[in-house]
Amino acid sequence: MSTQGEPRIAFIHDELTRRGGAESVFEELVDAHPKSDIYALYAGKPVIRVNDKLKPVNTTFLQKFPLWFRRHPSRLLPLLPYAAEQIDLSAYDLVISSASGFAKSVITRANVPHICYCHTPTRYLWDNAHEVVRQRKYMTRGLSHALLHLLRLADYAAAQRVDHFIANSEWTKQRIEAYYRRPSTVIHPPVDVSFFTPGKQQGNKSDRPFVCVGRLTPSKKFEQAIAVCEKLNLPLIIIGRGQHLKYLQKVAGKHTTFIGYADRSKLRDYLRNARALLQPGEEDFGIAAVEAQACGTPVIAYGRGGSRETVRQGETGLLYKLQTVESLAEAIRTFIATENRFRSEIMQHHSFRFSRERFLLQIQNAIDSATVSNGKPRAG
What we know:
By secondary structure, this protein is α/β, with parallel strands linked by helices. It has 14 helices and 14 strands. Strands 2-1-5-6-7-8 form a six-stranded parallel beta sheet, sandwiched between helices. A six-stranded parallel beta sheet has the order 11-10-9-12-13-14, sandwiched between helices. Strands 3-4 form a two-stranded antiparallel ribbon.
């Protein structure tokens, strides 16, 4: 246990085998509390960079599986709730989970507050459950239904053990209420608006490429962006890695370029020189959309989910109603006809409401509220 005024904090993330928006948020959380201890159900390498120093990540027995096996989360699915419950957090005064899966399943002492920053209610159990089953071979669908049913029970039970939920968007807040029957406070993820800034654009506007950024997964719907840009003879750059790469390369044509991983500096360069960011998937929040606007680049996004909070229709981008190739094509045509109306300074100013400083202040206020209500000293 800690001494008065120096609470011990534990941070828990689902898994640290890849880096995306959720991992960026987790890194900001632990950066603000460098003396905390860090846990994950499993990791690629059991270390994380905190304030430019490597810090160990405590993992569960799942870490003993080979890395090539752990890179496919579905193989570990039945073990995830059990693994989270094995983490011993009895020495801590505050527990903060960063979850889109089972990190929130950890067990704490009754008088220790557990704050969960929820990136999304576990999608493959709730929103996408039937789609997940349809992707299985016909003979295994019955077993898949049964497994997901049991995991839903475990996920719901885990959500009831959380003391305070923080949602990354109003969209996520609604789904936490719908699936877990729990209230939550919205704190949008942070974007480094001092780094992602407008730059000098190269070439004619009509020659600049459209850009997609994110993990290459089916939910991103990048194949729709490929189909439209190939049909309209528009250059498209896709930045990211993931399981859907081979399929996307198969459907792509001469107008599409795959970049793979891009570090922050390269990503900023691509966003600064992009004609627009395309976001055809339904995002829980969508950090890339805010980074693009911070760089003065408009966003064309499917108008459902977090995009309704990150993009201002007609001012910082365009939102379209149907998640179809035809609707995206019409939105791009509309954008091309009206793109001179979008002003870099307006888009950049809009991004300021998602600044890192604002995020950290709101998180600290949430921590203070949680610890005070549980009789604990201020954390941080």
